[in-house]
Amino acid sequence: MNQTVIDLEVEIEHEGERLDKYLALIYPDQSRSYFQKIIKDGNVTIDGKALKASYRMSEGDIVTVVQPEAKSIEILAEDIPLDILYEDRDLLVVNKPKNMVVHPSAGHYSGTLVNAIMYHCKHDLSGINGSIRPGIVHRIDKDTTGSLIICKNDHSHVHIAEQIKNHSCNRKYLGIVIGNLKEDSGTIEGAIGRDPKDRKKMAINEQNGKPAITHYRVLERFGNYTYVEFTLETGRTHQIRVHLASIGHPLLGDEIYGGKNAGGKFHLQGQTLHAYCLTFIHPTSGETIHVEAPLPEYFEKLLKNLRLQSVQAPQD
Q1: 273 with 173: CB under 8 angstroms?
Q2: Which of the given ranges, 205-209, 232-236, 237-241, has the highest pLDDT on average?
Q3: CB-based burial, 253-285: b 16+ in 10 Å, e otherwise
Q4: Nearest Cα to Cα of residue 158 among 313, 314, 6
Q5: Three-state DSSP class for residue 224
Q6: Which residues are catalytic, by number?
Q7: How many CB atoms lie within 10 A of CB 95?
Q8: For residue 82, which of 97, 60, 61, 104 has the smallest C-alpha distance?
Q9: How far apart, in whole angstroms, are the C-alpha atoms of residue 188 and residue 272?
Q10: DSSP secondary structure of 10-62
Q11: What is the rounded CA–CA span in Å between residue 307 and residue 220?
Q12: Which of these, 63, 62, 68, lies nearest to 4 by C-alpha position?
């Protein structure tokens, strides 16, 4: 059976942290319960000694993690065109289109970004997240467009995951919200967790959710719509969508969090949200990498339409 083996050196900021929590922070796409299981199975060691989930980390510890091959259906490489914004031997940044799922899941085993990068990168993808999510270090929703980092090896994966965790990977989004935001800039805070009334959705959940912070800056106003730039301080599932809905300004087109009429008269396919900018430190060279993804055609046309309507609107 194929396994992924990687050594992690514990840094000072993780001094005293529980082992299972530490691993869940390093690998944000895996759950804490997953690591509790592989720890229990003896797959996490220091100097060959098996550990317990409650072990408290010390600076300088070298933790060896052995991840069994993920048990899943075979995921096939597919010749799907990619819009590559940056690429080198360690990673690439792609501009994901609308209506593309990032990685395979129930009901989506082909046509995903993973199928496409498997064809493009052949065998050069990180294996930390198992065979169903090779190379994937962070995600965006199916109908959100824009930039995503794909890691070609485990070294890059660990470094990028750490930057995402400690917020040194700067991620900016562009979106159009329903309504006229009162302030020109601001911050939305609210813990995000599963919606207790609908397990398929996320919600503000101060009791069981994880802290989430979204900064916003108004770019243009179009009467009942506002064009906004978002900067993520945290990266929770559906964070921008949930936060905007929580203040009464859901994203245009987001019927899940804004209701069935959230698309208005524009006949949109999902939320109007674009991950346009990524800035991070290269895991090997140490250089600052800045990548911007151009707006998709539908978004450009929508902005043009809104600007035109705004000019034509009767003035008081």
Answers
A1: yes
A2: 237-241
A3: bbebbbeeebbeebebebbbbbbbbbebbbbee
A4: 6
A5: coil
A6: 141
A7: 20
A8: 97
A9: 19
A10: PPGGGTT-BHHHHHHHHSTTS-HHHHHHHHHTT-EEETTEE--TTPBP-TT-E
A11: 9
A12: 68
Output the pTM of the full model. Answer: 0.75
Of the candidates 296, 186, 196, 302, the one whose C-alpha atom is nearest the C-alpha of residue 243 is: 186
Residue 61, token pair as written in the block: 């510890």
Q: Are 215 and 231 contacting, i.e. CB atoms less than 8 angstroms apart?
A: yes
pLDDT band with cut points at 50, 70 and 90 for residue 214: very high
Write out the two tokens for 104.
């395979």
* Res 71: pLDDT: 54
Q: Are the C-beta atoms of 130 and 72 separated by less than 8 Å? A: yes
**Rounded distance, CA 254 to CA 111, Å?**
23
Closest among 106, 151, 147, 149 to 128, alpha carbons compared:
151
For the chain, the residue count is 316
Query: 155: which residues sit within 8 A by CB, 6+ positions away?
Result: 90, 283, 284
Per-residue b/e over 53-62, b at no fewer than 16 CB within 10 Å? bebebeeebe
Chain segment 168-185, per-residue pLDDT in tens: 899 999 999 999 999 999
Could you tell me the two tokens for 63? 């933790």
**Beta 49-50 vs 62-68: how paired, if at all?**
unpaired
The helix/strand count (H/E) of the chain reads as 7, 15
